[in-house]
Specification:
Blueprint lengths: L14 H17 L1 H4 L2 H50 L6 H15 L9 H15 L5 H7 L2 H21 L11 H25 L6 H27 L1 E2 L4 E2 L5 E2 L11 E2 L21 E6 L5 E9 L3 E2 L1 E9 L1
Parallel strand pairs: 1-7, 3-8
Antiparallel strand pairs: 2-4, 5-6, 6-8
Length: 323
């Protein structure tokens, strides 16, 4: 018994791809309702597609919660990077740089550990810090230390975070009664009943009657299956940083506060551990993020570097905190 309908790689479709695939198939079934000759099946399928579409749109709103968390993580890293630059300049040989670093370090010290504060407290603190650093009292110090890009980035992330907070307030309103997984299963099953019917009718006789439907259906399947192949290709194409070169981190002084160092990371390394002059240097918060363990008390601190964006993988290194 020959088949006229292609098989969709439905279990590998993303949420958006799955919803889009069924929306097109639902439109197709509605247009070919007379050929299918099963109004209840088509009606039931349309209801399931609409149900999934509603859940998908609700989930897109809910993604703001995840975006909020990711944005908070990025602004934490950006703030840590900014403070690391300021602390590094506290040992600068140039008196002007040293004085500028001292003034900004004193200002930041008034706010405590901002990156560890509660969401709302951190948001207010960053607004205040940015306002101070952009004021006439500190702007020359900021320019001297080259902090303006960091402040602009921090300000942008804080604005994004506040936007996501507003958008997530309504997330739990109109929450769907069933899970996305169950809705997806119901939609797939509703379409399966229609395609099984089409295949059976085509094999019983007059398959040409069902070819217009089959051609359009197969085009839809081919399109979404190709998206899956491209998606998996992009995932595997991300560059792994697990063998990248990380410059040695000098011992840091004990301050009683978390010691947060931004490492120098390059993609390639020479034999023997040396750095290749032509290697591409990765950018903190754009190409990688960092996390720390045991970075307060004297001893050995652990720093984990995670690839993001075009990069994947993780490198773990250590540095010492002197008493």
């Amino acid at each position: 018994m020959s088949k006229i309908l292609e098989i969709p790689d439905i279990y590998h479709y993303s949420i958006a791809e799955h919803a889009g695939f069924h929306k097109q198939c639902s439109d197709l079934c509605t247009r070919h309702d007379a050929i299918i000759d099963a109004q209840e099946l088509v009606k039931h399928y349309t209801e399931k597609v609409n149900q999934e579409d509603y859940i998908y749109k609700w989930m897109r709103r809910k993604e703001h919660t995840e975006k909020k968390a990711e944005t908070d993580h990025q602004r934490d890293n950006t703030y840590v990077g900014l403070t690391a630059i300021v602390r590094a300049n506290l040992r600068h040989f140039d008196p002007a740089m040293l004085n500028a670093a001292n003034r900004i370090h004193k200002l930041l010290g008034n706010y405590g550990n901002v990156a560890q504060a509660h969401y709302d407290a951190e948001t207010v603190a960053i607004d205040s810090i940015v306002a101070h650093l952009q004021s006439s009292s500190y702007i020359e110090d900021v320019r001297l230390l080259g902090l303006m890009p960091w402040i602009d980035r921090l300000n942008d992330l804080n604005a994004q975070f506040k936007q996501y907070v507003q958008e997530t307030i309504q997330e739990e309103i109109n929450k769907p009664e069933i899970s996305a997984k169950e809705s997806r299963r119901q939609t797939d099953e509703a379409l399966r009943k229609i395609t099984v019917r089409i295949e059976a009718l085509a094999n019983l006789g007059a398959p040409d009657r069902y070819m217009p439907f089959a051609r359009e259906y197969n085009e839809i399947v081919e399109h979404y299956n190709q998206l899956v192949h491209e998606h998996y290709g992009r995932i595997h194409a991300r560059t792994d940083i697990s063998t990248a070169y990380v410059a040695p981190i000098p011992a840091q002084p004990f301050t009683g506060k978390p010691v947060c160092v931004i490492p120098e990371v390059k993609l390639t390394k020479k034999a023997g551990g040396g750095m290749d002059e032509a290697a591409a240097e990765l950018v903190f918060t754009q190409d990688f993020t960092v996390s720390y363990k045991n970075n307060i008390s004297p001893g050995t601190a652990t720093l984990a570097i995670q690839g993001i964006g075009k990069y994947k993988g993780e490198i773990v290194t250590t540095f010492n905190i002197n008493p």
